[in-house]
Each structure stands twice: as structure tokens, then as C-alpha cells.
From TrEMBL:
<dbReference type="InterPro" id="IPR001227">
    <property type="entry name" value="Ac_transferase_dom_sf"/>
</dbReference>
<dbReference type="Pfam" id="PF21124">
    <property type="entry name" value="VinK_C"/>
</dbReference>
<dbReference type="InterPro" id="IPR016035">
    <property type="entry name" value="Acyl_Trfase/lysoPLipase"/>
</dbReference>
<feature type="domain" description="Malonyl-CoA-[acyl-carrier-protein] transacylase small">
    <location>
        <begin position="139"/>
        <end position="199"/>
    </location>
</feature>
<keyword id="KW-0808">Transferase</keyword>
<dbReference type="InterPro" id="IPR049416">
    <property type="entry name" value="VinK-like_small"/>
</dbReference>
<keyword id="KW-0012">Acyltransferase</keyword>
<dbReference type="InterPro" id="IPR050858">
    <property type="entry name" value="Mal-CoA-ACP_Trans/PKS_FabD"/>
</dbReference>
<protein>
    <recommendedName>
        <fullName>[acyl-carrier-protein] S-malonyltransferase</fullName>
        <ecNumber>2.3.1.39</ecNumber>
    </recommendedName>
</protein>
Amino acid sequence: MTASEQTKTAIVFPGMGPSGFSEVGRFLTLDPFARKRLAEADEALGYSVFDRLRTSEDDYSEATQVAFLVNSMASADRAEQEHGLVPDLCVGPSFGQKAATAYVRSLPFPEVVRLTAELARCEHAYFTEEYQDAVTHTFVRTPQEKLTEILTELGERGEWYDYSGYLDDGFFMVSLRETELEWFKKAISQAGGYSMYTMVPAVHAPAFAELRRRAAEEILPKYEIRDPKLPVVTDQDGTIVTSADELRTMLLDTFDLPIHWPKVVDTLKGAGVSKMYITGPDNLFHRLDRTKSNFEVVTVGPGKRSRPARKR
């Protein structure tokens, strides 16, 4: 494909990362797009998301997740109005799948808000009963061969671990028991890697098949998912989703399959995408080397100045 044919645009809704109330709350209060989406969320849930967010001490509480969804959708609204965004494909890695589901109109936004809240409660109940000490650790600059040695040693000691994300060269997410976290971080450091942050509870691990089952049987049947109005690229293997059944499967895959961002990038490149809008509170995906080296990236969201980053 020639450079002149590389003209398509993708919208990417980022996954959740640690965030403070001050920045999130300020955006919800001051941004007109966020205020509108927040009012819709409040009406859908029957309570004030902002009030619950203000008193929440959990980085991934129900209110925190809904607020992230609100801010992501508000950022997409701004990108459309101020940047003239009309994307050809949509991606929602990890938690971003929920905003993607609303954006491609597989579910109306108020229903996605309720779905998000219900899934948050389902996850909380699951991790209260199962894998109470499971965490997901994110780290960078760690060669695959070194990581394989570390995980082999962990396995030989009879300890559980799962890959939860392949983000870039040397950039991974691994789920394991919290009791092994300090040993693991030290081993990563000795291998030349750098630990970034740890998520509690853990995410995207094959061990969580029971959580997937609960979501499939108890939550998703309440919602009438429709065919997406825009093709969606799955974050697990880069498959392009065009039907309701495929999108439902993608939503369930997030519980027990790892993210694979390089495969997403390969699919987008193969589809002719040259420009990417990342809409929402993103501290990760726009910074990845694989993202920056393949696309012109525009970030739109809390704390962003909505300026494009040059493609390297």
C-alpha cells in the first residue's frame, strides 16, 4: 500500500489507569461535553456519580469506572465537534471496550453506563470470593527471554501467574499473587526492566474464566447488543468485529484473555489507518513506541491540549 493510500482514521478509547479525583473531578465539573455526559449517567443510574466519586477510595470503584466512561465519551464528542473526527475504525483496549460499545451504537450510552456499573459490582463480588490476593503488574524494558526465565522460576515454585497484556517490545502486564509481587519486581529490575504500576484487582487473566461465566450468564443477557455501526478492532487479537455476536464475545474476552496491542497496530496498519485519535484519560497508549512510530496521534481528553503528536 502506498503512502497516498494511507488515509484512514481510527478512534481509540484507552484503558483505565490510576487517576486522582482532583483531575477527574475538575474535568467532570468544567468541561461542557463531560457535564452533558455526566447528567446522562446520573439519570441512567439514579444517583450522583460525582458525589460517589468524591468519596471513593478505590481506583476501580463503580463510580470511578463510570466517570472514566463519561470522560472518554466526552472526549470523543469534543474530537468530533472541534477536530471534525469521522473515524473509519474503532478500538477500545481493556476498559475502553465499554466506551467503544457506546460509540459504535451497539448499545445506547445510558445502557452502557448501567452495564458498566453492573459489571463493576460483578467483578467486586468475584474478587471478594476468588483470587483475593491477585494483582496485575505492568512493566517495561524487559526482554522476552529474560521474562520467560523469571516466569519459569515462578512456575517451578508452584506459584500462579498469567500474562495479562502484551503492550510493546519489552512491555508487558503479568498477573500473579500479591505475596510474590516484591520478588517479581526485584527480578524485573535485575533483568534491566522497570516496574510501572500494579492493578488491584487483577485483569485479563485466563484464570478468571469464572468471572467471564458470571458476566455471560448474569449480566450481558439483560442487554440487547446490536451490530456496530463502525468496525471495531478487538484488543485481544486484532480481529475486526462487525456483528453483535462478535462484539459480545469481545466484551467477554476481556475477562480472561490478555491485551495484545501489537496485533491491534498490525490490523490498523493493514486496514490503511495512518491517523489515530485517542479520546479519554490516557497515560499509556499514546506513549507506546509502536503507536508513535506507526500513526499520527492526536490525544483528546482530561489534561490534554488536543495537539497532534508527530509521527516518527
